[in-house]
Automatic annotation (TrEMBL):
Organism: Rhizobium rhizogenes (strain K84 / ATCC BAA-868)
Name the record gives this protein: Transcriptional regulator
Cited InterPro entries: HTH-type_Bedaq_tolerance, HTH_MarR-typ, WH-like_DNA-bd_sf, WH_DNA-bd_sf
Gene3D superfamilies: 1.10.287.100, Winged helix-like DNA-binding domain superfamily/Winged helix DNA-binding domain
MF terms (GO), sorted A to Z: DNA-binding transcription factor activity
Domain HTH marR-type: 15-148
Pfam families per the UniProt record, alphabetical: MarR
């Protein structure tokens, strides 16, 4: 074994420990953020569909199913529940009358925005009240590093 390989091992161990701790912390933070938004009786799949429609815009049931990695029949059941709750609406596809284009309703858009605002407010308050100014500066530096990792 070359000397360079031996000196590299401790760095790999440190990186592995950081990666494990980071995954754990990110998961816990995601859980805490989810708790801040009232999703009521909605399933994670229903929330995911609403967020996809909000982000990607109107889609057909089959394109939504492909994007979410599920069968069209399963997506149909999700859409039926969201439609009954008044969160999505369907309009005839102008190019193919057999297809329905789904989009979120204004009520759904408000619900998404309120959820984001609640999560932002919770996180801002937690940072402000639980971290010193110096710790906030460290967190800002860490966020920049995490952004670099995420952008690769």
């Amino acid at each position: 074994m070359r000397m360079n390989d031996q000196s590299h091992r401790p760095q790999l161990a440190v990186a592995a420990t950081i990666a494990q701790d980071l995954r754990s912390v990110v998961s816990k933070l995601k859980r805490r953020l989810r708790e801040q938004a009232d999703v009521g009786d909605m399933t994670p799949a229903q929330v995911s569909v609403l967020l996809r429609l909000e982000k990607d815009g109107p889609m057909t049931t089959s394109s939504l199913a492909r994007a979410e990695g599920m069968r069209p029949q399963s997506m149909g059941a999700i859409i039926a529940a969201l439609d009954a709750a008044g969160l999505v609406r369907g309009t005839a596809d102008p190019n193919d009358g057999r297809q329905t284009i789904l989009s979120i309703t204004e009520a759904c858009r408000r619900w998404i925005e309120e959820g984001r605002a609640a999560r932002q407010d919770w996180l801002s308050r937690a940072i402000e009240t639980r971290l010193s100014s110096e710790e906030q500066d460290h967190l800002l530096s860490a966020v920049k590093l995490l952004q670099r990792l995420a952008d690769d």
